[in-house]
Recover the amino acids of this structure.
């Protein structure tokens, strides 16, 4: 308020008792301000200008009485003492009846201790169904869906007029801990808004679908804590649980004394029954247990019942006194479960019953009958409509999407797979949820963003750009989605669909692992749409996804192309058709070869032999290769180098036309035949630019098209700043575009590449030279597709194109609705390719989907910081372990069977010689056999050994028919076509039963008595022979045999009370060759089957055994007899001889039951090994990546990212923040403070080494930046040495060179200082597009380093990185 003539301010802060203020000064208008009443009304009253100050004027008009009595120091002290210092009790609030608490205690220990029921694990809740799914139900449905979580039955008939009656399902009750911030549940508390899209490393990832928390609970829950056994142990005096989960040590509370109680058994029984009546036992557990018990095989059930009855014999006696109520209840439950099971099985179809017995089928590849005719009835209210009729596979996919089911669509390029992705976007928009479209390369993401922006609310997230991340439909690269899943971004809660485009990219060696990680980490509520080209194992891959996510995947697709393709060879200005309607035409190849022959054969006589001299053979790099040529017509060098060649090799036409002239000829030919536009695939960025620049005299656009191109380019390039508008690349590409020629590869600026894509889609570009990424990235078919060559560089070496890659690129030929046929041209620069190579490429099978899963340090650290997830769980669910995990149920069954068989074989062996030593004998035999594998091949291949194997030579053999080393004699040596040696060996085992056919053949081989008599044989009586047979055939003199063997191998018999066997023995089955020899008659043994001859041979062997009672006959000396020169072989031979000598000294060696006992022990050991192997295969140690995992764990422990208990440390948390470079190098760089002495420009320049991924020339650096480079390089070498030390296949220097590329350090440094982009491009040979991508990715890298500094807790470092980011944005 102002008063006076000059506007003087008046302060309105009078004493509380004053109600008026009078002001007056000379030259001013006096006035008086006052307040009236308790409400504080303000009034102003002018006063006389000539009044004089008096004592009366200072008095207020009204003085009110004080509201409170006056305060004195004594009164204040008394009030404080009474209120705060004097204790007192309130008679009403502090009474004993209100404050006290009493407990009922049974002083005599005979009471029943009641337990409060635990929180229920399951509950029955209504199932909400959207209104658009309730309508148009006119038929009666009866669906009994039974699984672990759902039991629902609907029997009433519904119509649009009937009220909607919800169904019910049984769900798990969410515990209160699942709503905590560190929970993996989707119901947890949301994080800050800044982390909504990309998440934070402090968040827990959401629980992936298909994971069971009960399987991972043993990691952090003590053993026995889930079933209450640890409580009983403590009451009985067991140890206490002193170390909490996650802690390294706990409190030493000592050993508690056993708790003595006097509960009566009757009371305990009543207590258990009351708990069961209360329903604390989960229904799903009871049902699952009853279901599994009903499926146990009969033998297993009997064995388990027997073991249970024996183990609980005492308990059965105690329970016999209990009332029969419990048994009646169990019987009732059993009847209920059996009734439910019978009802469910009766409702299944025969195929479903068979699947229920075999196991759940997760991939479904069945055509919906009548989908084309009944589609409008099955899907009455579509989320979006299309201006064309959908194909059958598209209708099937839409039908499954409406049913909230995941689909796998496999079809050729340009067949219409994108329609399924669009419909998933429409469903997400309709349901007010989100959908994510993932792609392997950024080109696809950019093109889909442009296509979908007109139809949906779309945002894009890639490594280069981030636009509208809050949109309902997001397009992103697979790496971005993986980061969101690991960091628990809250946006994942809203995702309903994830569309995986180009799923066959999972075969990529470098980035295929990202697809598997994303599929495994997706939460349960997310459905998947998988789009892929045709691959042979579609069903197998879908089955893996279904088993991993525990949901069915419906496979659909088509093998029909919307536009048929014709494949041709282009040679010397003509097209030769070699494939049409997927049928290879050899005649076209022959015609092209004939044309080539006419061109290349010289007209001068006598020059035919050198027609192909000078031509490069094979497929040169990028289609320009060379090599030594082959003479004649076989010297094929498709893609061979062209240029100056000798005239003698070109048919007298002088030098071969240059590549430029061939391009002119090819383009003019296509223009004449109306085959434009054409996409020419060149597998090199430099080749694309050179080919486009060579067509300087070609102009393919009209005046209106030139005007359209100019306006579009001017509008697009106007976004560039200053001198960037006149960059050489921009000027060159713009000039090419005006003439209808374009280039498309990764070296272009992003804006230039986008302009080329959009102009090609508009149809004004007639000839486009592109790399392979265009076939995957841009949905823009052309009339013709041409291949410059068949060779490409896959990042490691040059190789031929695969059939799947060729099919992917060739599929861009043919525009649906415009062309009746698409043309694919193979350019033949110098020679015609081989027919076999063409046939393989055009008609070969596509490459199967194979797992490229590998462990990374980032993956390990992200999983170790989460208690609910384990790295082993990720390894088990990878596609590489799919077949092993699918076989686990069968292996578990095998383990049970073999353990049961092993328990039956554990009976003691009854030895007739006293204490059995068969185990020692078996161990010696196994060791001797192991040494024999390394020695016997060399010994038997020696000339001395082959010469020693003559008839009559005593040998020791071990064959499948004679499983123990047994003495034998050589009957026939190997000769001619008979490579095996025939041996007569002792057989102290059971003779196998010979089939009747074999027996007849053996008896039939003997000569008739009449024929024998005619040949000079006579018959002697039994008493003269001492044999078991009644008669035997003998001969008086030896004769030469005919060579016909009349016994069937193996031939068993008995002579002199000992069994024998005649068999063919291979070299590997000889144990040793003895020095001893005996007399045998091969003719009588093999041709006559004379029992006397067999008896004589066996008797000689038995006499030889008696001569060497505790040892085998002496064997040939390796040096003197066998002439072996290898000292190592000789040493092993002598060691094995010592083992054989110990075996001969064993009392089991000559035991009649040796073979029987040996086979028993061998089978027992084989079963033990098989059981051990099955247990190993069922364990985590059998995983393929487990050795690599252990090695990487050791590396992380050494660098300090984790401790000995696998707990992630501070350095490990920092490493989790780094995604755009090598996490270990970046973390060591931060903790070593290597960037502290660098300014912002130098810091950003050095970080470019982590982002840049190409080879480039060495930069020129300042001394300070060069020193920082050396420090970082030394860190990388040290980390490589650590990895190599722990067994990883890493070379330290190669690791440092592969992870750190310093080619753009100078360029980024100059850019950060503000140097124009046109100037910095002159500093390197790296394309402009690669420079821009590196600079854009540096922004994300700096942001990751800033978050890492925040986790490290260094404010100075955090401020420095914030300053770097601010300066980077300003630049």
């Amino acid at each position: 308020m102002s008063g006076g003539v000059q506007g003087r301010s008046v302060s309105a802060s009078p004493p509380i008792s004053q109600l008026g203020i009078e002001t007056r000064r000379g030259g001013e208008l006096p006035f008086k301000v006052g307040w009236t009443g308790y409400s504080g009304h303000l009034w102003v009253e002018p006063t006389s200008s000539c009044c004089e100050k008096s004592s009366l004027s200072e008095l207020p008009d009204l003085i009110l009485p004080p509201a409170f009595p006056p305060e004195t120091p004594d009164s204040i002290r008394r009030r404080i003492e009474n209120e705060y210092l004097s204790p007192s009790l309130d008679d009403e609030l502090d009474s004993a009846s209100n404050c006290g608490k009493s407990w009922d205690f049974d002083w005599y220990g005979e009471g029943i201790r009641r337990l409060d029921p635990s929180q229920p694990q399951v509950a029955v809740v209504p199932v909400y169904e959207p209104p658009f799914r309730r309508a148009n139900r006119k038929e009666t449905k009866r669906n009994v869906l039974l699984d672990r979580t759902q039991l629902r039955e609907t029997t009433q008939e519904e119509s649009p007029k009937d009220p909607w009656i919800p169904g019910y399902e049984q769900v798990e009750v969410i515990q209160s801990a699942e709503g905590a911030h560190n929970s993996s549940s989707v119901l947890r508390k949301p994080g800050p808004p800044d982390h909504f899209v990309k998440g934070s490393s402090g968040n827990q990832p959401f629980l992936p679908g298909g994971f069971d928390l009960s399987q991972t609970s043993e990691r952090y829950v003590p053993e026995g804590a889930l079933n209450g056994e640890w409580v009983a142990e403590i009451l009985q005096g067991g140890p206490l649980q002193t170390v909490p989960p996650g802690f390294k040590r706990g409190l030493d509370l000592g050993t508690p004394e056993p708790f003595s109680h006097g509960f009566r058994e009757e009371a305990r029984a009543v207590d258990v029954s009351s708990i069961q009546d209360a329903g604390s036992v989960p229904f799903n557990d009871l049902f699952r247990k009853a279901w599994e018990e009903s499926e146990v095989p009969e033998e297993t059930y009997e064995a388990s019942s027997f073991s249970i009855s024996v183990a609980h014999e005492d308990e059965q006696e105690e329970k016999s006194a209990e009332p029969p109520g419990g048994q009646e209840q169990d019987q009732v439950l059993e009847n209920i479960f059996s009734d439910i099971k019978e009802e469910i099985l009766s409702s299944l179809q025969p195929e479903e019953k068979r699947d229920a017995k075999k196991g759940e089928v997760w991939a479904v590849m069945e055509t919906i009958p009548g989908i084309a005719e009944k589609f409008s009835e099955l899907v009455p209210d579509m989320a979006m409509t299309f201006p064309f009729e959908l194909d059958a596979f598209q209708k099937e996919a839409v039908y499954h999407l409406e049913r909230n089911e995941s689909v796998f669509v496999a079809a050729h390029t340009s067949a219409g797979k994108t329609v399924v992705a669009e419909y998933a976007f429409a469903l997400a928009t309709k349901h007010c949820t989100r959908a994510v479209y993932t792609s392997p390369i950024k080109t696809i993401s950019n093109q889909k963003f442009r296509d979908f922006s007109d139809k949906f609310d779309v945002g894009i997230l890639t490594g280069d750009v981030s636009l509208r991340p809050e949109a309902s439909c997001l397009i992103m690269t697979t790496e971005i989605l993986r980061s969101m899943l690991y960091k628990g971004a809250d946006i994942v809660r809203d995702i309903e669909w994830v569309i995986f485009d180009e799923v066959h990219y999972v075969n990529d060696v470098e980035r295929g692992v990202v697809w598997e990680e994303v599929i495994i980490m997706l939460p349960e509520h997310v459905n998947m749409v998988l789009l892929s080209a045709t691959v042979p194992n579609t069903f197998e891959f879908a089955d893996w996804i279904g088993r991993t996510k525990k949901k069915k995947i419906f496979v659909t697709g088509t093998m029909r192309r919307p536009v048929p393709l014709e494949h041709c060879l282009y040679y010397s200005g003509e097209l030769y058709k070699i494939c049409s309607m997927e049928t290879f035409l050899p005649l076209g190849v022959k015609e092209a070869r004939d044309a080539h022959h006419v061109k290349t054969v010289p007209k001068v006589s006598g020059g035919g032999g050198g027609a192909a001299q000078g031509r490069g053979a094979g497929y040169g790099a990028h289609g320009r290769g060379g090599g030594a040529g082959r003479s004649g017509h076989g010297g094929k060098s498709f893609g061979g180098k062209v240029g100056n060649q000798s005239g003698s090799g070109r048919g007298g036409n002088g030098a071969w036309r240059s590549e430029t002239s061939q391009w002119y000829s090819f383009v003019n030919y296509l223009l004449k035949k109306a085959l434009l536009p054409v996409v020419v695939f060149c597998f090199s960025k430099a080749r694309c630019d050179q080919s486009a620049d060579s067509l300087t005299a070609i102009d393919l656009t009209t005046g209106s098209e030139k005007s359209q191109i100019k306006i579009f380019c001017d509008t697009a390039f106007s976004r560039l700043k200053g001198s960037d508008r006149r960059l050489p690349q921009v000027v060159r590409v713009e000039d090419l575009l005006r003439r209808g020629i374009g280039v498309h590869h990764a070296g272009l600026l992003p804006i230039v590449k986008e302009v080329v894509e959009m102009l090609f889609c508009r149809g004004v570009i007639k000839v486009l030279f592109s790399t392979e990424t265009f076939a995957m990235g841009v949905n823009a078919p052309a009339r013709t597709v041409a291949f410059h060559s068949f060779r490409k560089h896959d990042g490691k070496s040059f190789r031929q194109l695969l059939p799947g890659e060729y099919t992917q690129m060739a599929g861009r030929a043919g525009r649906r609705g415009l062309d009746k046929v698409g043309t694919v041209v193979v350019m033949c620069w110098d020679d015609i390719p081989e027919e076999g190579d063409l046939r393989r490429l055009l008609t070969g099978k596509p490459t199967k989907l194979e797992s490229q899963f590998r462990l990374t340090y980032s993956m390990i650290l992200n999983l170790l910081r989460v208690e609910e997830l384990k790295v082993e769980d990720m390894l088990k669910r990878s596609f590489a372990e799919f077949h092993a995990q699918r076989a686990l149920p069968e292996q578990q069954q095998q383990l049970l069977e073999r353990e049961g068989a092993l328990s039956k074989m554990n009976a003691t062996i009854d030895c007739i010689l006293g204490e059995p030593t068969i185990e020692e004998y078996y161990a010696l035999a196994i060791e001797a056999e192991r040494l024999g594998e390394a020695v016997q091949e060399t010994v038997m291949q020696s000339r001395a050994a082959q010469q020693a194997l003559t008839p009559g030579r005593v040998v020791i053999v071990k064959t499948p028919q004679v499983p123990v080393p047994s003495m034998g004699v050589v009957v026939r040596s190997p000769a001619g076509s008979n490579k095996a040696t025939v041996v007569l060996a002792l057989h102290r085992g059971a003779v196998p039963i010979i089939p009747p056919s074999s027996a007849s053949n053996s008896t039939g081989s003997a000569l008739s008595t009449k024929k024998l008599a005619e040949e000079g044989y006579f018959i002697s009586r039994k008493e003269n022979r001492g044999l078991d047979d009644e008669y035997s055939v003998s001969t008086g003199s030896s004769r030469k045999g005919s060579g016909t063997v009349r016994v069937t191998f193996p031939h068993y018999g008995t002579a002199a009370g000992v069994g024998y066997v005649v068999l063919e023995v291979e070299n590997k089955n000889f144990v040793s060759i003895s020095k001893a020899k005996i007399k045998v008659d091969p003719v009588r043994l093999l041709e006559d089957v004379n029992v006397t001859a067999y008896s004589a041979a066996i008797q000689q062997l038995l006499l030889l055994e008696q001569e060497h009672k505790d040892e085998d006959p002496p064997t040939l000396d390796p040096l003197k007899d066998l002439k072996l020169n290898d000292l190592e072989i000789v040493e092993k031979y002598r060691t094995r001889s010592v083992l054989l000598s110990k075996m001969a000294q064993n009392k089991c060696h000559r035991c009649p039951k040796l073979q029987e006992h040996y086979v028993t022990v061998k089978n027992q050991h084989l079963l033990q090994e098989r059981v051990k192997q099955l247990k190993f295969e069922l364990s985590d140690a059998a995983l393929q990546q487990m050795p690599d995992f252990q090695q990487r764990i050791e590396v992380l422990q050494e660098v300090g990212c984790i401790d000995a208990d696998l707990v992630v440390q501070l350095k490990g948390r920092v490493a989790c923040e780094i995604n755009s470079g090598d996490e270990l190098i970046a973390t060591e760089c931060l903790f070593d403070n290597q960037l502290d002495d660098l300014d912002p420009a130098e810091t950003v320049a050095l970080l470019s080494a982590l982002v840049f991924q190409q080879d480039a020339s060495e930069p020129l650096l300042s001394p300070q930046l060069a020193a920082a480079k050396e420090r970082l390089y030394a860190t990388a070498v040290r980390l490589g040495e650590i990895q190599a030390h722990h067994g990883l296949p890493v070379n330290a220097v190669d690791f440092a060179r592969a992870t750190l590329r310093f080619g753009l350090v100078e360029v980024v440094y100059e850019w950060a200082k503000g140097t124009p982009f046109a100037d910095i491009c002159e500093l390197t040979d790296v394309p402009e597009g690669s420079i821009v991508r590196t600079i854009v990715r540096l922004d994300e890298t700096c942001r990751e380093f800033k978050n890492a500094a925040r986790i490290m807790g260094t404010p100075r470092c955090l401020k420095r990185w914030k300053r770097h980011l601010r300066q980077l944005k300003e630049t």
Q: What stands out?
A: DSSP finds 49 helices and 36 strands in the chain. The mean pLDDT is 76. The longest strand covers residues 1058-1065.
